[in-house]
Amino acid sequence: FYNKRKKMRISNIYILFIVLFISSCARPYRKLSMSEIPFNEFRDEIKISYSIRQGVMYNTKNRFYAKKEFKKNVNLIAFKIINKTELPININDLKYYCGATIPLAPISIEEYYKTVKQKAELYWLYSPGVVVYPRPPKGSKKFIPLPFGIPLAAINYGVSLKANKKMMRDLQLLDLSNKVIQPQDSIEGILTFKNVDNCGDIYISVKEN
User: Fold this and answer.
1) Position 10 confidence tier, pLDDT thresholds 50, 70, 90
2) Per-residue confidence (pLDDT) for residue 119, from 0 to 100
3) Are 33 and 61 in contact (CB under 8 A)?
4) CA 188 to chain centre
């Protein structure tokens, strides 16, 4: 009976270890595609019409980055903006509001990236300490340690580094900062913000010259 309980305890420890290990592995990154982001509801201002989609990382199944967003209180938000005027409108001339009253200011994609990226270098900590002990051969009481930390660390490092690079490429490609919306034209892309978790709605207006 004692041996049975001991085996169950060891099995439970192994299961717990596997769960913790899997949950801490590097995550791949899914490409952001503006064509897959539905812009359904548009708000009308005098000079622009616009649609906003929050929760982009979550809805594109980039759950690791979505969790980091929630934890660090940063958000990647998708926009589609239509210029209804006969003059160009610079994105920097737009004002953003939380709930139509509280002013918001975008943060740089570099700041956002540093906040949510996977810490690739930390996966090398797997190298020295992760080992398994297979069953000993018949007739032997010796457990032979089989280290697999280094290849595991290398795989996780590679996955996280590749994911971070892909994300940064998308951020740079889709960033609306400093872009200009031509007359009677529209633009789609992303901006990143801080402290907007409690904003049910975000509103946009054009600065008056």
Assistant:
1) very low
2) 80
3) no
4) 19
Q: Who's near 33: CB < 8 A, 6+ residues apart?
A: 60
Distance CA 67, CA 75 (A): 10
Q: Give the pLDDT confidence score for residue 23 in this predicted structure.
A: 42
Confidence of residue 51 (pLDDT cuts 50, 70, 90): very high
Q: What is the pLDDT of residue 164?
A: 92
Query: Cα-flanking dihedrals φ and ψ of residue 51, to 5°?
Result: -135, 145
The pLDDT tens digits for 101-145 are: 899 999 999 999 999 998 866 554 555 544 445 555 565 555 555
Distances (CA, A) of 195 to 35, 41, 102, 128, 136: 27, 23, 11, 39, 55
* DSSP string covering the chain: -HHHHHHHHHHHHHHHHHHHHHHTS----PPP-GGGS-----EE-SSEEEEEE--HHHHTT-HHHHHHHHHHTEEEEEEEEEE-SSS-EEGGGEEEEETTTEEE-PBPHHHHHHHHS--GGGGGGHHHH-EE-PPPPTT------EE-HHHHHHHHHHHHHHHHHHHHHHHHHHB-TT-EEPTT-EEEEEEEEES-TT-S-EEEEEPP-
CB 165 within 8 A of CB 96: no
